[in-house]
Write a structure and sequence with these properties.
By secondary structure, the protein is an alpha+beta fold. It contains 9 helices and 19 strands. The strands form 3 sheets. Strands 9, 10, 11, 12, 13, 14, 15, 16, 17, 18 and 19 form an 11-stranded antiparallel sheet that branches. A 6-stranded mixed sheet has the order 1-2-4-3-5-8, sandwiched between helices. It binds adenosine-5'-triphosphate. This is DAGKc domain-containing protein.
């Protein structure tokens, strides 16, 4: 049944990558999915699975190998399934860009939030959505997800578990819904995209450290937080909401900008965020001391913290953030270290179709 055909994908973006190997396997697909993915062409639909073999400390790769036969049998029919293993950080961006340009019907991230983040970034290039090379094409490439990461926080917003069989069922239905994507600009770098949560200061610093301890599973977030606390100082920011006037935002502990609701391995940090709302939820923690986290931890996990003193929540379409101390305030997006303030965050409403 399987025809393997290795070929290289041409680098499409500004980041020079090792050439990805794309394994193409001819497989069948259910009529539902076939119809949903490819509405107006007789060509066979193509699904590209972008697999991070090192996700969740190597478990993502092992899980993928285990479920691949099921992928083939469940999505059996008349589609083409391409499997592309990432060779290192940022590789998924290039694979995705090339897959979209070549007319893939769906690019499916297989791994954690970091892999999903890279795949989402691959949907854009030079500040614009990547387009199919075939200008006559009447369909767009959908985003899919098989969550197999350590935290897999974006999936939690939809109530999806780290359960590949459940994910394959979802993909097999082929239903698409539009989701918003956040954009981060500034710092003299090109636009950067996030689909889940971008965050600033203590949480971003904790995330930076937790990435080094992924081998400990979800415990990495606790270790990262402890390390982040060392030498931490609340800082005064100034912010500009929806291109209005600058406002002072004193003694910020952490500022979280959510398109999805969860980060840090299940913390419901932006509980009112909804990836199809056309808005971002900004939750700001101010003047927190280390013991506030211990006292309020359960509220942070269940999303009731926004009614607590020194926590505020607002809905925005854009927010610009500067720190007044110039002390190198950490910024992360979807759990990936991005750099330091200043940055501007804004929403691109309904810009991607997601298999949901
Ligand atoms: N072949 C590879 N070798 C090493 N690192 C890789 C490789 N492919 C991707 N990566 C990097 O691995 C990082 C983590 O991957 P991923 O998010 O899938 O798993 P995770 O960190 O365990 O899950 P989560 O982000 O949900 O906690 C990503 O930032 C990605 O850049």
């Amino acid at each position: 049944m399987v025809m393997c055909n290795f070929y290289s994908v041409v680098t499409g973006g500004p980041i020079a990558m090792a050439k990805p190997s794309l394994v193409r396997a001819d497989c069948a697909m259910s009529p539902d999915l076939s119809t949903a993915l490819r509405r107006s062409s007789s060509r066979r639909p193509e699904l590209v699975f972008v697999v991070n073999p090192k996700g969740a400390n190597g478990r993502s790769g092992e899980d993928w190998n285990r479920i691949l036969p099921y992928v083939r049998s469940r999505l059996g029919g008349d589609c083409i399934i391409c499997e592309s293993l990432t060779s290192g950080p940022a590789h998924a961006i290039d694979i995705t860009r090339e897959a979209i340009r070549q007319g893939a019907d769906a690019v499916i991230a297989v791994g954690g939030d970091g892999t999903l983040h890279e795949v989402v970034n691959g949907f854009f290039w030079a500040g614009k959505p990547v387009k199919n090379n075939d200008r006559e094409a009447t369909y767009s490439t959908a985003l899919g997800l098989i969550p197999l990461g350590t935290g897999s926080d974006f999936a939690r917003t939809f109530g999806w578990k780290n359960d590949p069989h459940e994910a394959i069922e979802r993909i097999s239905k082929g239903l698409r819904s539009r989701v918003d994507v956040g954009v981060i600009t500034g710092g003299d770098e090109e636009s950067h995209y996030f689909i889940n949560v971008a965050d600033i200061h203590l949480s971003a610093k904790a995330g930076f450290y937790s990435a080094k301890y992924k081998k400990f599973g979800n415990l990495c977030y606790v270790i990262g937080a402890l390390q982040g606390f060392m030498g931490h100082k609340n800082q005064d920011f100034r912010i500009k909401i929806d291109d209005g006037d600058w406002e002072m935002c004193p003694q910020v502990t952490a500022m979280c900008i959510g398109n999805g609701k969860f980060f840090g391995g299940g913390m419901k940090i932006t509980p009112n965020a909804d990836p199809s709302s056309g808005n971002l939820e900004v939750v700001t923690l101010q003047s927190f001391k280390w013991y506030d986290f211990i006292l309020k931890m359960h509220k942070l996990y269940n999303g009731t913290h926004i009614s607590v003193k020194n926590v505020s929540s607002r809905r925005v379409q854009s927010i610009e953030v500067e720190d007044l101390s110039n002390s190198g305030i950490f910024v992360q997006s979807d759990g990936e270290h991005l750099g330091f303030l200043p940055r501007k965050f804004h929403i691109l409403p309904a810009v991607i179709e997601m298999l949901s």
